[in-house]
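Protein kinase G11A: structure tokens wanted.
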Amino acid sequence: MAGEDTDPKSGASAAAVPTHFSLTLVGRLMDLSDLECTSVVSVVRAMTSKTMPQTIPTIPNTEEKKQCSQNDSSLDLTSSSKPSTGLPRKLPESAIPSSPNKEVQSNDQKPSHKLHESVDVTSSKVPADDEKDTVENGNTDGNVKSDSTVDKDHGAASASGSARLTGRSETGERGISSRCRPSTGSDVSEESACSSFSSTSKPHKANDSRWEAIQMIRTRDGILGLSHFKLLKKLGCGDIGSVYLSELTGTKSYFAMKVMDKASLTGRKKLLRAQTEKEILQCLDHPFLPTLYTHFETDKFSCLVMEFCPGGDLHTLRQKQRGKYFPEQAVKFYVAEILLAMEYLHMLGIIYRDLKPENILVRDDGHIMLSDFDLSLRCTPSCTAPTTCFGPRFFSKSKKDRKPKPEVVNQVRPWPELMAEPSDARSMSFVGTHEYLAPEIIKGEGHGSAVDWWTFGIFLYELLFGKTPFKGSGNRATLFNVIGQPLRFPEYPFVSFSARDLIRGLLVKEPQQRLGCKRGATEIKQHPFFEGVNWALIRCASPPEVPKPVEIERQTTKLPVSTSEASAAPTGASQKGSDNYLEFDFF
Ligand SMILES: Nc1ncnc2c1ncn2[C@@H]1O[C@H](COP(=O)(O)OP(=O)(O)OP(=O)(O)O)[C@@H](O)[C@H]1O
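Answer:
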């Protein structure tokens, strides 16, 4: 299924198509436009006949997904939504990236692609039935090959985590009562492979006691690897791996460990996807994005150790709401946090591309975390993203520009607005989830960061109305609807004019006319729907729901011992639903 780097329209090598990243500080107009970002554009023209591709070995079903899910427990609503009060306008702290100190490395890598005839649906995935096993994983494959240095100097924190965590696990509900909405993506469609990272600190998470626990083990044993973790429970399976609730043995610090079978990744041409996810995770330091504590490899597995979110995902949470939609105040809270996360990603030159409730996890405090970056698109300048919104050394070249006197700034505008968009980045990949795909992706026109504002609109709609706007009777119908059907709102539930107006602005089929296209997240944040949101302090706001505390089960599970077992276990197409096919011709 891999293809060549050829633009089907121009015939030019896709890898040679330059993309651009522009970063503008509105008000002070510090311009970083035309920073070139080499992105290997993979061409994915999904065009299948109405018959299923021969290469599909299994037809996924919801039961399989259910096997991959964990147990569920009900969640009490312990707090009501509380709108933020308006405070003086201020630079959003949560939108300020910390200093990643990444090494920039331009990249000429041009993975070879072929014109795809269908989206990747070839993986055979049978969830492992190992959740009841009680063998410690460290005994099966604890041979640590390498140890990462993602975590660095973190502030002294007191005791490491508590055995008492909050939250609800995802359950069979997702497999039983909710739709499976797999993300589609080309096999080898990584558009860029930009750099090596050397992040030295993550100030936003500096007070997290898990850093200290990790450091303690490192100091004691000189290395940190799989054998130091107890896998307690499988949390879920994705396309490239399985995620386990894990304890750093003896520390009562809990993590979500994504375990990917290397042979399976290689065999299924998913290595680049896994690499993309790891590199992006290494970049991140934001309250609404995952923290990667460490990563390591064994002979068989590649492991990412991330923050554990005990509250399940927003899709599951929505299913539990009365009417299967959230109250508008709750929606405002969730989408505001996502908007800040998206703003930060765009500032790093990352186009997320796979926004959907399933990818938004709920932390123990009820705030959210955007997860799953394997379909994201990066531009090289992401690695040179500013350390703060006003990071002078990144934004301007002259010393004079770098240190403007405050009063001068104030004369222009009290608080300059940040607009950071990889607005000219272009990809020809066909990735995403059918109901969330932007028209320009379906039409194969190439796409940029505006796709994230489209998906943001679909996401907002789904949270408010309990369904997506263009869903058809099948995938083909859905895709046609996205392209051709006008946006309509149901009469019920009642949704405010400002919410509908925001959705209208976001779900403009022409990307250049779409809200967010010109000034990025800033444009969206200023919409009346977000009136009253205190962007700077949103992470201190009361979330709509706080997961109920749950005791962590002390049982352990194990990883598959053989590659074949592993490849059958952690992969996800089989539990991703049978709608993982594209059944349309060219638009
Ligand atoms: N940090 C986390 N905390 C709690 N559960 C998690 C965490 N990360 C992932 N999960 C669970 O594991 C499941 C698999 O996650 P993963 O990111 O591997 O795949 P995915 O979201 O299905 O996407 P994809 O198939 O595109 O990789 C998720 O659906 C989620 O339920």
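Confidence is low (pLDDT under 50) at residues 1-179, 186-199, 382-416, 562-587. Residues 63 and 226 are 30 Å apart (CA to CA).

Cheers.
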